[in-house]
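A quick aside before the break. I want you to see a complete sequence-to-structure record at least once, exactly as it would be stored in a machine-readable document. Don't worry about memorizing anything.
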Amino acid sequence: MNAAEKNTHLPILFRQDRRFFFGILALVSLINIAPMVMFHVGGDVFAHIALNDCFSTQFWQGDLYPRWCLAGNAGLGAPFFLFYFPLPYYVLALLHPLEWLGVSPYGLLTLSCLLATFLTACACYSWLKDMVAPGYALIAAALLLFMPYRMEMLLGRFAYAELWSMAWLPLIFKYTRRLCLDDKNAILPLAAAFALMLLSHVPCAIVGVIGSGAYLILMTGGAWLPKWRYGLSLLWGSLMVAFYLVPGAYYARFVHVENIDKTWSNVFPSLQTITHFGLWRPAIMIAVMIAATGLFIIHMLLHRRRIADGFTQHELFAWAAIAVLALFLFLPVSAPAYALLGRLSRFVFPWRMQAIFALCATFMLAQWMQYLAPLRRRDTWAADMAALGALLTLLAYFQLTIYQGGKNGRFAVLAAADVETDPQYQPTWSDRKHFNAVYVLDRYNRRGSRSEAMAISGTGQVEVARWAWDGIALATQASNIMTVRLNQLYFPVWRAQMERGAPAILYPEPRSGQMLVDVPPGRHYITLTYAVSHAAPWLVRIANLASIAAVLLWLEKYYRAGSCVLTSRLSPVRAGGKYNKKIKKILSCNIVVI
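That is the input. The structure line, written in tokens, reads:
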């Protein structure tokens, strides 16, 4: 019997079934993304529309994993999805047929954000209902959607991939918590959650590892078995997505990594960062929100003795420590710690530490409703309500602040030009002053009557026989050695061959970085193809095999374990003493949604 069934005095809302709860979360999700329907948000929305156009178009043409965007950079091509996170764009690709029915590209993004929002709410509800009554979990999950960091992602920066990563973060904490309760069945779903988050946004996944790893250490003390299981889940999840991680890590040497998010300088909330991105009001509100969350945590710790459950008491301390760690990594004082990471420090952590604050505030709210609010003690009730009221007031004010900030008109300006400037993933052999990186919606804005390939030295003719994602074909006739320049950037994923499989010499032009191919005299038919295995075939093949083996092993273990793995129900903990006391069988294999 769960907490909601025990507390018969609770309103009827707290005793409804799952379908009712999911309906409420769907309604709250619609309200949450309503501003996207009411006006076009700013931030990076146009860049994501352009990337979606590239990914979805090639996907439906048969390129099941379009790592190279043929129409990117004003038609010069770009290795976007060698590095960028594919899962959110697979969602858009599956929604792409709606565009053929008249749905706009912005409408597809809105639908995808709605799905990500709903999954975030469901994941948070699934995590919290292990600890508190379902009704309280429902309220806290709904409030998570309106936390400052998440609203800033949605209406401020429009960090589309980060928005999707937030959908899996509560599941990482859910199954890490179950590992702390000696539930070995949590290994499989935790591995899946890590894999989904890595495919959605690698830096946010690292933030999730930092937060959940700290939680595990604080909750298990010197016990090694939960840590080994956690490490196994993390390794398993990483292997399942090795097909993406390994090529991305290998090919990173060929792009100007210091050009990626350089202006954010690890995104510490510095004066330069706030000034550059115009984040004055959101930054102030986020700072106030962190302070309010800190006060709420202190308030909870001061009244922890009102909670009889020893496990929950220890959990309050663990989350307070995690919040302090996140605050440290959020502020510039942690710069020396990031410097120790070397090249890995280019992954932007600090700003995204707010995701941990959001989950911490959600956890504290759920525990406040479950344990403290029903007691209605006269001596602390005023302080309780003041703390909750301050938190909710700040949430409401932040919605109005970010709502006004989202209506910046940037979408209309970019839509009129059909371009979005962004110098990411610039090849190292191209001159930064010469290289002008722009995304272009290919079907709206082509380069006019330009020639996709032309001879720049030697005597002869060149004709483009094919120009598509699955290959470029050139028919040449030369009287002497001729050099042909193609309007595609050179990158090691490309390979050129002549008839009968004879290799052709392919190399970059010094300033522009475009592909040059030397053609011998006579008539020749040259084909150019791209594949991530061209530069390091053995490394990529090992990564692909590792991913296949990890996924097949996960499926085999899942079907062997039966429905208990993802459908087990964990009752709210009632340890009644020391939290690390061996908890008797509290898992029951009922058919329940996660």
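Two observations worth writing down. The CA atoms of residues 407 and 466 lie 43 Å apart. The chain has a mean pLDDT of 78. We'll return to this after the break.
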